[in-house]
Write a structure and sequence with these properties.
This protein is mainly beta and 228 residues long. The protein has one helix and ten strands; from the N terminus they run αββββββββββ. Strands 2-3-4-6-5 form a five-stranded mixed barrel. The longest helix is centred in the N-terminal third of the chain and has 28 residues. About 16% of the residues have low confidence.
Length: 228
């Protein structure tokens, strides 16, 4: 009798053991193994605003690049252009390579308009000074028919922003703008040693420029003490 009970208990214990083994194996099989791969990637770069002109070669008649500058350079400009807009305090006149906004003051010479103002679309002769952070119209005068032939010639007085290099490009600052003009073999350089490369940075000069469209070619370079 005891032997029979013992065998029963052994069978029950063995069955429970087998059941626990199966349950444990099932539990282990149901746990997913997660492998997390972390990676870092970084990109770095710098971007600079550059202006390039396709299809041009150094020393060629490249389009004039007018840029804004934070350094204000005193100077003046004389040109002929049509009036884009005008009121008692401001006049905007079209230059060959863009419009120029100028302040009208009580000191502006408007005697040729009997103290009045030109009209929109009228062709005018302009003299303007770069003073105190802006362009001030110093003289406004009606242009006549013969002046139309000089409409594409502009005279600047300012300061070079860099020396003239092998590309023969003159970089001229007037007011808060920088103009880039081409010097070629016909440019009169007699006042600056007959050499474009003799023009150094921060040199006060006068420049007469002939425009073809928006392209500016230097006709003459002079010192500020000279007469154009």
């Amino acid at each position: 009798m005891r032997y029979t009970l013992l065998r029963r208990y052994q069978g029950i214990i063995f069955g429970i053991g087998m059941l626990m083994t199966v349950l444990l194996a099932s539990a282990c099989a149901g746990v997913p193994t997660n492998t997390t791969t972390t990676g870092t990637s970084s990109t770095s770069g710098t971007s600079a605003a550059t202006t390039t002109t396709a299809g041009t070669t150094p020393g060629a008649n490249q389009p004039t690049a007018t840029q804004q500058t934070t350094t204000f350079v005193p100077g003046n400009i004389q040109f002929i252009g049509s009036v884009n807009s005008v009121n008692n305090s401001t006049i905007v006149v079209q230059m060959p390579d863009g419009a120029l906004s100028m302040t009208i003051t009580p000191q502006t010479d408007r005697s040729h308009f009997n103290g009045g103002l030109p009209t929109n679309g009228q062709l005018v002769k302009v003299e303007t000074n770069a003073v105190n952070g802006s362009f001030i119209a110093t003289k406004l005068e009606p242009a006549d028919q013969k002046d139309q032939t000089s409409q594409n010639v502009v005279q600047y007085q300012g300061v070079t922003t860099s020396a003239v290099g092998a590309d023969n490009t003159l970089h001229l600052g007037v007011g808060n703008k920088i103009w880039n003009f081409t010097i070629n073999q016909t440019t009169d350089l007699s006042k600056v040693g007959n050499s474009a490369q003799s023009i150094q940075a921060n040199q006060p000069i006068k420049v007469k420029v002939q425009f073809t469209g928006t392209n500016g070619t230097v006709l003459k370079v002079d010192t500020n003490s000279g007469n154009n």
